[in-house]
Structures are given as structure tokens and as C-alpha cells.
Amino acid sequence: MNGATTSGELRAHNRARLLRAVHEGGATRTRSQLTRDLGLARGTASVLVAGLVEDELLHEEPAREQGRGRPTQVPGPHPRGPLALAADVREDAWELAACELGGRVTVLAVRPHDGTPEGALGTLGEALAAERERLGHRVAGVGVALAGPVRHGGLVDIAHLSWHTVDVPHLLTTPLPHPPTGARGSTDTPSRSGRAGDGWDSAGNPLPSGRAAGAPPLPARGAAAVLGGAGGWGVPLFVGNDTAFAALAEARRGRLRGVRVGLHLHVDFDLGGVLVVDGRPLGGAAGSGAEFGHMPLTGGERPCPCGALGCWSTEVGANALLRHAGLAHGGGRGREQAERVLATSRKAVAANARALGRGIAALVNAHDPEAVTLSGHGVELYERAGGTLRAAAEPYLMAIRREAPPRIEGSALGWRGALLGAMESVFDAFLTPEGLGEWRGSTP
Ligand SMILES: [Zn+2]
């Protein structure tokens, strides 16, 4: 079971369970509901909650609807409690937010960037460092979602932007020269984006704080790179793919909640997709598993910036919409025009929906999911052309799949999924006896 043997360990385990239940329930469950759901004795729950309030992890408010008798309390985030800093780095802009226990999001900044690793991650790093300074010990960790495959917890490739093996923790903690340098497209500078030999930099550039040449490689996905040491932030960093994070959020707070096998597809400039099993997106051996978009599911022959031929993602998303409308596409540019095409061009929307449906059919044949969820542009695409999509899928489904096809739905989280998934990755590590132990050590 949990392996807790001493009463101290059991208490630490129950503290983490209770906080996790508050978080997963969106800070809406009353204390008595939580007590019942977790199978705790009433007295035990009272002592636990009192301790968590004292440690500034929880704060109780009276429930809105009161019956007779003693008022019911709803445990929620403490006003000086832990925060996850979460960022969604898209191909043309990033968004940074502070997230409380329970999942409430406060957007701190949205900033367009120039498409270079330094322009995107350097400016985000500065904003993160400033927020870390401002919020102090309240920052439990940082989660960063990126629009490309992420390997070994921090190395990202974004083919449309010519990012190759970009070392995300390094760039987030390397001070920027001002103004940011680097022309768009010329991003292959090995000094900052490449990973040299066993170390992190062999070009005479300063190494990131707390990490020396020859340091061990970044930990595998799911573990954190700690941005610590002198000049560092001293908090865990979780870097992940936007589709995988959107899928994680969908499994925790969206339409894949309680689904054993689900398929999540995130549509932005192109398409990402991942299988979600028992609430977890399948990450692959090195963490870059969320890449159904790079399978030749629609029979096309178009070369994809990823290096493969005929990828599904060349047929779905903002780039494909722009191409169908005869507009310039690629390079993470043209979001507003693509949105206009999505709203006005039935032809471009139908072509996207047909490609989406045909690819979904292939994946449904392979994986037998209970549900298929769509986020990003996928929500609007499905609203506008769900019938076309389903009709396109039908002939490509195996007969046994056609009898009871999975439900297909737009995400209720819309564009927020990647950011929320980045938040969940931080709280997954924090809401453990070890994470909470560090909080107790760090609170003033
Ligand atoms: Zn591809």
C-alpha cells in the first residue's frame, strides 16, 4: 500500500492525501465530504486540517449553502499558500500564470516572441525569475509546456521554428543580453541551443547556475530539473509537450476524467496526439511520446518539417488552414488569419475536418479508446464541422469499431489545457510527503 509504518509517516501520508483531494476536487468539497471520501475518522480529519491551516497550506471558508446545525467548512487554498508557476510556450507567444491549490489560475503575463529559442525562453526566464523573487517561498515549482517533442525532461525540438535539441532549463536560467539577439530561423547556435558532448556547453559560454560541464544528463520525464544553486531559483522545473500536458489536464479536470483509455488531440499550428491510459498520457521511453501527429494517417505525401513524409499534422491545424486558403504559412506565424479562415472558409474547415476524422479512425482502430477529446483549434473545428469529421472517419473504421464508436468531444478546457497540465505536473510532485516536508522547512 502506501508503505507508511510509523504514526509520523502515516500523518504525512494523510496530509498529502487530503491536500490532493482538495486540489483534485477544485477546492469545492466540504470538510465532511472529504472526510468521508478519504475514509478518515472525523477527529483525525479535524487534526489534519488544523495542522494544514497552521502550515499555511489550507484555508477554510464556510460552505455557501448552509443547512441547520454547525456551519460546514470548505477547505481551499491558503492566501499565503503554495503556487505553481505554469507557462504555455506557443510558436508565436507565451503565457505565464500562477496557479493555486484547487486549480484557480491567475494569468500574470502574455507576451509575443520572435520565434527564436532566446526570444521565447530568455524572456520567459526573466519573467519567471521576477515572479520567483516576488512570490518567494510560495513557488512550489515551475511547469513549462512547449509546442514540440520534449526529451529527457528538457530538450525540445520545434520543427516549424527550426529549434533543434534546445536545452530549455539552460535558456530559462541564462541571462539575456538586451535587446534579445538572434535572427528568426537562425536558431542552430550550438552554444545556446545545442547540447555539447557530455556537458551543456563547450563554446565558452557561461554555464547555467548550479550545473557544471560533465554534469549528469537531465532526468527522465516525470522527474524535475531543479533550478537551484547560486543565482538559480531553487525550485523544481517540469518541462513537457503541450499535447501531453493538455491531455493530463483533460484527464484530471476535463472530459477524460475517469476514462481508462482515451485519446487526446491538441490542434494549434499543427496537430499533436497522445494516448491517455488510467489518467496518464503515455510518455514514451525518453518522454517524447505525444506524437500521433507525425504518423502518415491520411495517405498524403507532403514533406513535414519534422523530417518525415506525409505526416497527419501537415493536414490539420492553423498551417493547413492557411495553406488551404492560399495564404503564407509556417514559422509559427499567421494565428489571426488562421482564426479568420476557421471562422469563414467552409472549404478549408471541411478539408481539416476530413483529415482529422480519417486520422482519428486509424487511431481508434489501433487503440480502442473510450473517448476522443480535442483541444485548441480542435474545439472550434469540431463545432463547425463535427458531422463532416464523423462522416470522414466512418469508412476507415473497422466494422467492430463502427458498432460502438467512441464519443468525440471538444475539450471544456479549450486553450487552457496545456497550462493546466503544466500546473498539475508541479502539484503532482509537491503533494507528496517529501514535497510537503520541504514546504514546512521553507515557510517563514
Ligand atoms: Zn512530421
Automatic annotation (TrEMBL):
Family matches, as Gene3D superfamilies: 3.30.420.40, Winged helix-like DNA-binding domain superfamily/Winged helix DNA-binding domain
Residues in coiled coil: none
Feature: compositional bias, Low complexity: 206-216
Region (Disordered): 60-81, 172-216
PANTHER family: BIFUNCTIONAL UDP-N-ACETYLGLUCOSAMINE 2-EPIMERASE_N-ACETYLMANNOSAMINE KINASE, ROK (REPRESSOR, ORF, KINASE) FAMILY
Family: Belongs to the ROK (NagC/XylR) family.
Name of the protein this chain belongs to: ROK family protein
Organism per entry: Nonomuraea wenchangensis
Upper taxonomic lineage: Bacteria, Bacillati, Actinomycetota, Actinomycetes, Streptosporangiales
